[in-house]
Amino acid sequence: MNFSSDNAYGAAPEIVQAMAAAGISPEPSYGEDQFTKRLSSRLAEIFEHEVAVFPVSTGTAANALSLATLCPPHGAVFCHAESHIVMDECAATEFLGGGLRLVALPGAHGKVAPAAIEAALPSFRRGVHSSLPSAVSLTQATEYGTVYTPVEVAAVTAAARKAGMAVHMDGARFANALCHLGCHPADITWRAGVDVLCFGATKNGACGAEAVIFFDRAKVRDFEYRRKRSGHLLSKMRFASAQLLAYLESDLWLHHASRANALAAQLAAGLAAVPGVKLAQPVEANEIFVYLPEALANRLRSDGAAFYDWEPPAAGRVLARLVTSFATPETAIADFLARIRPT
Ligand SMILES: Cc1ncc(COP(=O)(O)O)c(C=O)c1O
Q1: Residues 102, 108, 114, CA angle at the centre, nearest 5°?
Q2: Which of 6, 56, 89, 308 to mutate to test the pocket of ligand 1 (most atoms within 8 A of CB)?
Q3: CA–CA separation, 157 vs 162, rounded Å?
Q4: What pLDDT does 145 receive?
Q5: How far, CA to CA in Å, does 73 sit from each of 97, 99, 164, 295?
Q6: Cα–Cα distance between 82 and 85 in angstroms, integer?
Q7: pLDDT at position 243, please?
Q8: In angstroms, rounded to a whole number, what is the distance separating the alpha carbons of residues 256 and 206?
Q9: Taking the CB of the first residue and of the last residue of the chain, which one, N or C, has fewer CB atoms within 10 A?
Q10: CA distance 124 to 153
């Protein structure tokens, strides 16, 4: 009953095998290999657009390096107050961005709304005395497991464009968002005005591989120097690219994400039916935020369940985060629900 994170599960056999198959024979290094080239073509096909693709090994590197590229050191990145770049990346974006500023915006269900961007802009109109609003960052699916629709993405990007800001998307759970929406990958990225996508794979079955995808080559600017200087240019990049290729092969990424989403929906439906238990956010991807009585949360943990408290316990209840993954056993859902009895 491990619902602590989608990172808690290991890697898919297809991806591990693809790394092994990438093998021992010589290949050009630093991304000149055949796997990385094939990856770029495959992603161009999937997104139906020209792409500039840069594999890196962590989501933090992908976010920080792409935002540092979009935003000057005197710039500001608007993002949600709960976003991973604000809460969980140890100021990597500010560090690699040479001191750029993250501006944390409020917003229901973990989403940045156009109105929040517009409301924040006036305090940045003091010339050199304030930072220059340069980029908006969206997380898809959000940190609350909710999903921006194509219309919502387009509305945010329109507000960003109006203010002269670029748009970044943290897609650590992009596949989960896409499966929820059932739309085309382009509909929530370049077609809706997104400039760069950090395309996650690790949480959804890779060993450690993410792709930074620029939809406009001109926006790549000095990204490659930044990746090298920060120590994220992998010499044997073929192994990261082989993971990503296997991830995309036969729609493995979509099978994994729909499975994780379906398990989350099943778990959420079971939880919602229990008296005293209340879902805190709509369950749209593979994360569930749920208020549990503290005694129940403690009992579930002593029965072997693993999950995080999103907020410290208060007034006898906890806000728990439960995450399902491509490899969560179905029995884990049944066991967990069977153990939820009114206390
Ligand atoms: C929304 C989101 N973005 C980015 C990341 C960063 O991933 P990593 O831990 O690989 O740096 C995570 C990881 O939990 C995440 O949840």
Answers
A1: 60
A2: 89
A3: 8
A4: 98
A5: 6, 5, 16, 48
A6: 8
A7: 98
A8: 11
A9: C
A10: 23
Determine how β-strand 278-279 pairs with β-strand 287-293. antiparallel
**Shortest CA distance to 93 belongs to which of 59, 133, 51?**
59
Determine the distance separating the centroid of ligand 1 and the alpha carbon of 342, expressed in angstroms: 34
- Give CA angle at 92 (281, 70), nearest 5°: 90
3-class secondary-structure state, position 97: coil
Q: What residue type is assigned to position 325 of the chain?
A: S
Q: For residue 341, what pLDDT band results from cuts at 50, 70 and 90?
A: low
Type of residue numbered 330: E
CA 65 to chain centre: 15
CA distance 209 to 245: 10
Q: What is the pLDDT of residues 133-176, one digit of tens each?
A: 999 999 999 999 999 999 999 999 999 999 999 999 999 999 99
Q: Tell me the average pLDDT across 92-118.
A: 98
Nearest alpha carbon, ligand 1 atom 9 = 59
Structure tokens at 323: 């995450």
**Cis amide prior to 141 (ω within 30 degrees):** yes
Segment holding 78, helix H or strand E: strand 75-80
Handedness of CA 303, 307, 312, 313 (dihedral sign): negative
Tokens of 99: 């001191």
CB 95 within 8 A of CB 111: no
Residues in the ligand 1 pocket, defined by CB under 6 Å? 58-60, 63, 84, 139, 143, 170, 172, 202
CA distance 244 to 253: 9
Q: Under 8 Å CB-to-CB from 132, ≥6 apart: which residues?
A: 72, 74, 75, 76, 124
pLDDT of residue 120: 98
What is the structure's pLDDT at 23? Answer: 87
The Cα 243–Cα 180 span in angstroms is: 23
Give the H/E segment covering residue 64.
helix 59-70
- In three-state secondary structure terms, 265 is helix
pLDDT band, residue 342 (cuts 50/70/90): low
